């Protein structure tokens, strides 16, 4: 069984990632700060992939 503290950490991490992606999507939809929002999406997706690789290896 997974300790509840570990679940809170993952939930907090994924919620912050979701908020960042939603903000970047909003910026892309508005057409402002295109490069900032594109790099933000790449950074969030890249960090999530890196965390998943480190977690399951």
Can you describe what's shown?
By secondary structure, this protein is mostly helical. It is 88% helix and 0% strand. The protein is built from 2 helices and no strands. It has helices at 4-30, 34-56. Helix 1 (4-30) packs antiparallel against helix 2. The radius of gyration is 14 Å and the shape is elongated. The model has no long low-confidence stretch (mean pLDDT 87).
Compute the number of strand runs.
0
Strand and helix order: HH
Structural class: mainly alpha
> Rounded to an integer, what's the Rg over CA atoms?
14 Å
Low-confidence spans: pLDDT under 50, at least 5 residues? none
3D shape: elongated
The helix fraction, in percent, is over 70%
Give the biggest sheet. none
Estimated share of beta-strand residues: under 5%
Number of helical segments with 4 or more residues: 2
Quaternary class: single chain
Distance from first to last alpha carbon: 19 Å
Mean pLDDT: 87
